[in-house]
Design goal:
This protein is α+β, with helices and mostly antiparallel strands. The chain is 51% helix and 18% strand. The protein contains 13 helices and ten strands. The radius of gyration is 20 Å and the shape is globular. It starts with 7 loop residues before the first strand and ends with a helix.
Length: 298
């Protein structure tokens, strides 16, 4: 496999500058995508956009890779991409069209201040980022999209930010309703555990490059390591350490496959004491040395 270079991390403000031309609001963008890739199977460079991204496929089909896992979007499918996820698009049919909304992480924290409410959605969408919408749900999403897009193309009035924030908040609750309908009563009763899990996942995504001890994350969310480990194991079947390692290895894989950084540079970037220790850690988790993985045809 030919290595793809030039991994990029993009701030939402850069996207907003190109799209929100009539106002200065840089925390939400909404636009229609009519070519989310190419008809060939040629892979494009991966991106990491520091934003929550909602993609509603309204026609055709496309394939996207999120954190090295491929997903297919067809009509009436909603894709939720979280901040810090890697995104790469590999294929789209000629008739593909989608509505896309991006919301900055800063605004997202203002919109949904109570993690108890967003926690179940966060946890679910980390493991399964697509939702198959009914015709009614799809139509409702389009109404929200049109309203938000039209407002963003209008004037920046005194209450503009409050209005757009309330709209985005309503849309997220609408999506949570989709998930709630599909969730069993037993799962709903686990809301407190899901809140702990969601806080843990957020903390790991922000700190895994420098912190790999369960005790660090337990202290950060104000519970004991034993309690954190029990909650994570109960909800996911994996240990807290497994989740931390998963983030470390995923980052290492992306850097090995999508950049020309040396193994030493990747080791430093992930805060390993030396290249040798990084190599042993990576091989223990994957069965391959970093060099072997980098040159594998996959």
């Amino acid at each position: 496999m030919e290595k793809v270079l030039d991994f990029k991390s993009i701030e939402l403000v850069d996207v907003a500058k190109m799209l929100n031309t009539k106002n200065t609001f840089k925390d939400i963008v909404a636009f229609e995508v009519d070519k989310f890739g190419s008809k060939s199977e040629k892979q494009l460079s991966p991106l990491r956009i520091e934003a929550l991204i909602l993609v509603q496929c309204i026609q055709g089909e496309t394939k996207v890779i999120i954190d090295l896992k491929e997903y297919t979007l067809k009509k009436d499918t909603l894709l939720i991409i979280h901040p810090r996820n890697y995104l790469m698009n590999t294929f789209a049919t000629e008739d593909f069209r989608a509505n896309m909304i991006m919301c900055s992480q800063k605004l997202l924290e203002d919109i949904v201040p109570r993690l108890t409410e967003i926690g179940p959605l966060l946890l679910q969408q980390r493991s399964e980022p697509t939702i198959k919408l009914t015709e009614e749900e799809s139509a409702n999403f389009i109404k929200f999209y049109d309203f938000i897009k039209n407002m963003l193309s209008g004037e920046n009035t005194s209450f503009f930010k409050r209005k757009i924030t309330c709209l985005m908040q309503s849309l997220l609750y609408e999506i949570m309703d989709y998930e709630y309908i599909r969730t069993s009563i037993e799962t709903r009763r686990k809301s407190r555990k899901q809140e702990v899990m969601a806080k843990f996942i957020l903390a790991v995504s922000e700190n895994f490059r420098t912190e790999r001890q369960v005790s660090f994350y337990a202290e950060k969310i104000c519970i004991t390591p034993k309690h954190l480990s029990a909650v994570v194991k109960d909800l996911t079947g994996k240990t807290a350490s497994d989740w931390i390692e998963r983030y470390v290895i995923l980052e290492a894989k992306m850097l090995l496959r999508t950049t020309d950084l040396t193994i030493q540079e990747i080791s430093n970037k992930l805060n390993f004491t030396n290249q040798s220790f990084f190599g042993k850690y990576f091989k223990h988790q994957t069965g391959y040395s970093p060099s072997e993985y980098r040159h594998m045809d996959i």
